[in-house]
Amino acid sequence: MQRRHIIQWGAASLAAPAFMAQAQSFPSKPIKLIIAFPAGGPTDITMRSLADSASKILGQTVIVENKPGAGGTLPAQALQTALADGYTVAQIPLGVFRLPYTTKINWDPVKDISYVLNVTGYAFGLVVPADSPLKTWTHFVAWAKANPGKLSYGSTGTMTSPHLTMELIAQQLGLELLHVPYKGSADLMQSILGGQIMAAADSTGFAPQVEAGKLRVLNTWGAERLAKFPDAPTLKELGLDLVQNSPFGIGAPKGTPEAVVKRLHDAFKQAMEQESYRTALGRYDMVPMYMSTTAYQKFAQDTFTREKALVEKLGLAKPQ
Fold this sequence. Notes:
Blueprint: H1 2-25, E1 31-35, H2 42-58, E2 62-66, H3 74-79, E3 88-92, H4 99-102, E4 113-120, E5 124-129, H5 137-146, E6 152-155, H6 161-173, E7 178-181, H7 185-193, E8 199-203, H8 207-211, E9 215-220, E10 248-253, H9 258-272, H10 275-282, E11 288-291, H11 293-313
Parallel strand pairs: 1-2, 1-3, 6-7, 6-8
Antiparallel strand pairs: 3-10, 4-10, 4-11, 5-8, 5-9
């Protein structure tokens, strides 16, 4: 027994300097940041700004790779096969915490990701074409009740926050809506502007189309009205006790050395404080939403538990 302990101690002693050296020299090559939505949307634009600032701080390029689809969960899945060396990190949208309840997977969203920090969250809302007869939320609800299953709305994907929030709204109001999922905001906007769907639930990437007079905002989903759309009521003002801002951050593969996680955390936190990033967020009514490594890990655990209750409440859980 003593001999085995001595051998284990010796192996750990040899490994420790290697980890220290790795952390001290990190990063020595470009870092890949995988994001969950397509190029050109709010997530892509804001995360590229963050990556650009982090690149200058780290002294190595942070390369953004878009991996859309599967409700925003593909980057987190990619971490499961990536080396735990800090050179692959990923955006972790809220949909990741719903995944085990709707899909059979062989990894745990809480235990099998090294959480680095949370960076921001979305400002959401519901829009319709400017020439739509659904002029207000009251019109939307009345038409949906009169035409069960015919009022089509698009979201940025099945089981994303826009989708689940709309289903929760529909459940509370006794509506039957027709959901049409897309890979991201860019595809969704093309569809609603092209007349393929009647409404779109999304982050405020729709702002340019609203400002151009092509779309109308029926409601927004924050705790307060958005300064950019002061005439659009919140869900709370419409009698729905709901607030949705869907925080998201950055994760690394399980087992990434603590010193490397700390280096990533410190660099991205400093990048969050840059004016260029805050300006990019402001274009979409988003704000910095910092959580430390410890706080983000706790958020992951708490959210994982809460999202299970939501998925079950909506009847969307699949038998495993």
